[in-house]
Write a structure and sequence with these properties.
It is built from 12 helices and 17 strands. By secondary structure, it is an alpha+beta fold.
Length: 375
Amino acid sequence: MKLGILGGGQLARMLAMAAHPLGIETVFVDPSPHAPARAVGAALTAAYDDRAALLAMAERVDVATYEFENVPDAAARALAGAVLLLPPPEALRVSQDRLVEKEALASLGVPTPPFRAVDDRAALRAAVDTLGVPCVLKTRRFGYDGKGQSVLRAGDDAALDRAWALVGAGRVPCILERFVPFERELSQLVVRDAAGDVRFYPLVQSFHDRGILRETLAPASDVSPALAAHARDHAARLASHLGYVGTLALELFDVGGTLLANEFAPRVHNSGHWTIEGAETSQFENHVRAVCGLPLGATGALGRAVSFNLLGDVPPSAALLAVPGAHLHLYGKSPAPWRKLGHLTLVERAGDTDFDARRAALRALVDAASDLPDP
């Protein structure tokens, strides 16, 4: 069997690495001649909306998927007209617009922070007056890793003008969301197959720095059965609504034991990298299984695990691997501020008594190599 992947970044690379032991070959379309996935599969160098390249890939594969949600909607639909594309293009359409995304979640009964559409400066004034401050102004499309957004902590006209200019509002439609005083950020991964069978990974806690994920703890600590059930229900409801096939990540705020949905990613996700060594079946293998029509694998955690993003620069590999239980994944990318160059996972072993100490040691090494400017 052959699997086509729109995108050739590190997520595509890890999908291909999960597909290979299953006897599944991979073909990528990516505009960069240096895309990380080129090391592990065949690649076509072309823009995502290059129709000829999409059709060429479709002729070589049995099914196609994508590794990130900013694939042009028209390109996804063109590819879906030539080969089975999973998850379906509708999942892309909903996830690409924060207003459409929030409206979809609200329609499913999944709680979100209060929000308002903002298309001009007058609408921003009205939205701030309605929601109050603090609040967050975000572009509706293409923002990621903290980009395309500004926190409003004051409601005067000068503060509104600064935020309006910072996110490029006036040129792009925006959304205003009430700032949520959350206690922690959580992520729920769910995988669903074409028959509607769903499996859930444990709820994990995410730690961000200036809007970018730095560390993930799996499973999250102090999760009550009721909270875990709510997270699973929200994710399952969304996946069913979208007719989803593959792995999906729902990012959540924990506000005093109440879960509010922040956003979802229709793909394998950074908060699930720990699953490669820390779960019975990784999120990447289960995504491949789902879109290729294979039975889903078990999703239970093998023990506690923590993963760190390696951003900007990489600590010496020997120092990282000297910590027992550490697993290093480098993506073959050149260093640059805030660029995700790899990740590091630490898995608890049977009889462990020093997991927390080893976690702290790895965090110190990672932080020492990541003296990052404001993004």
